[in-house]
Fold each of these.
Amino acid sequence: MAAPSIYGLSRRGLLGASLALAACQPQARSQPVPALPPLKSLAPFRVGTAVQAVHLNDPALAGLIAAQVSQLTPEWEMKMEYMLRDDGGLRFDAPDAIAAFARAHGLALFGHTLIWYAQSSPAFERLDESRVSFAGAYRNYIHAVMGRYRGVAVGWDVVNEPIAEDGEGWRDSLWSQRLGAFEHIADAYRHAREADPGAALFINDYNLESIPKKRASFLRLVERLLRAGVPLDGVGTQTHIDADLAPGELTRTLGELAQFGLPVHVSEFDVSIRRAGGLLRQRGDLQRAQAALYAEAAEAFMSLPARQRFAFSFWGLRDSESWLLREDGADTPLPFDAAGRPKAAARAWAERVG
Ligand code: XIL
């Protein structure tokens, strides 16, 4: 089978995808029943987690995921760094494995992410000299990736993190330089809509609760895209927060994001203990503050109109898999401990979604 490439799509390559997706993985063994009912059984909205293909080979973790959540977001294996080879070819094995697990367990799949300032690729960088146009390859990439999961993914983060760190304007990137600051964003959504008309198209960013200026810029961009008729269906707030975030900021942020009437995705929730500074130094205090923020997030999400609650996704379930461990091995930002037992934070969250 000819592999699809951003330099020209192979129809056969795309068709092969649906066959690969049909192959189910063996059922993961379930782990001992947690004392708390599964989070997804309590919440009247989809509950998600980030996942890597390698996690699905760990029976205890795979069992926890299948039991607790109803939506999966590939943590990195649907990003350009994984999917796009230097020669312009595409790699689908890991994301296909995640999609197959989702299908086997009746979980939704959420695509993350197509265009991200933080990732470009030699396949695009070399297009200066190539006869293939940059704009054509940009469209081909979005079509190839989304086309593979057409009718499978419920939604996509089409553009991730478009707002500058301090909230002053937008990110500079290969995409903005070659296609235009606003145009590359607008075009990504237009291509995405064509590629999978059934997928909900999201814009996603972080620090929206801790940097009001960044939140304001994000909201202005959403408004501008909608005014321009760009097919944007939802807003995502990553919600990587620290345990010392002031109470009320999460609630304010979700309220402001809901102003357009679009679905809202809490897309990457975790609460860092180790990044928190200030007066709350004791670990016990920080853990209580963490639980309070889990409770606030659940309550604020529940206060949105039901039709605007797209999903609430954790950026991992067990502390032992958190991406924050790379920064500080003692961090414990997630709802379950390393043994898969629900923490006080999970209980606080669960109490507020019922
Ligand atoms: C992180 C993943 O957790 C890591 O495994 C990866 O190496 C880098 O990216 N915002 C995002 C996510 O949108 O894609 C990031 O995920 C975390 C911050």
Note: The two ends are 49 Å apart (CA to CA).
Amino acid sequence: MVSYDSSGKIDILDLLYDELEEQIRLLGEPKFRAGQIFDWLHVKKATDFAQMTNVSAQLRARLKEKFCIKSLFVVKRLESSTDNTVKYLYELEDGNHIETVLMEYNYGHTVCVSSQVGCKMGCRFCASTLAGFKRDLTSSEILSQVYEIERSEGVNVSGIVLMGIGEPLDNYDNVVNFLKQISAPKGRKLSLRHVSLSTCGIVPRIYDLAKLDLGLTLSISLHCPNDKGRSEIMPVNNSYRIDELMKACKDYFAATGRRISFEYALISGVNDSKNDADELAALLRGFNCHVNIIPVNKIKEREYSSDRAAAKRFAELLGKLGLNATVRRTLGADIDAACGQLRREYEI
Ligand code: SAH
């Protein structure tokens, strides 16, 4: 995918291996140079062409003329005092802001990346939507969140969740390019089995993603088992109803064999009744899936609330009704690690 910076240079981190090879050919250089440069960018994570010491000074100068390596600027770094969660507020080259979170599990490090600056989806309980939508992130801006954290924290990330600011399937082409890039056999080689993509349910793109069969886990932000209630908290439900969404999920499972994860942010008095649990069980029973109950994170601008004990009770109830349900572990609670909250503070 070829994209440019403000001075008309090609953003080299956006280029897949074959595309880089083509660009190198256009410069009249032998193919193997592409391999060296790709390795510098995606394995050694160079931030400047000057670091590419096995490439001639003359070629480095030509690369610098035609291409750029975009960077992210750290505005804030917050570290949790209760676990090792670290949250970054980054500034992009055009002055926009995004958030990225690094989480530590006993099996490794996972990064939660943003896919857009803001969000158009308007979910009532979500902070990401409040500061408005500015623009899509390029594939390289999503990738750089991972590389930047790996560089500055000195870690090797083994998992990625697309659960930061933005709706990844509303930025489909850049997100798919990012997934191809991060898993490139000649580059960063991250297994897409360790990637989760969370969506509010853009149905046509779920079918597209199923066809690609990338091996990632699809997380569906369901949050309510019936159309009336879901439309009230998630406007996207007015475009794609729950039955259409479930059909797409079943197609995804049939095409990929990957079990779907349903997210359910429990909100007191909104979606936490016995009746909600019964409806949810009826909707998902017999479907090979997992339900993640999340105690809704309070955001300043909204009244919504719930707590861990309520989430635990709701998950147990679902278990009795035959569903596979757990409560999501909360990391970084003391630094508002949930998406959107830091950018929101910064934009006002
Ligand atoms: N747009 C995507 C991914 C970003 S949000 C999506 O909708 O799935 C990642 C997850 O956090 C989603 O499940 C989202 O619904 C949930 N979420 C947003 N605000 C929340 C809040 N205040 N409390 C708990 N979960 C929230």
Note: The first strand starts at residue 10 and ends at 11.
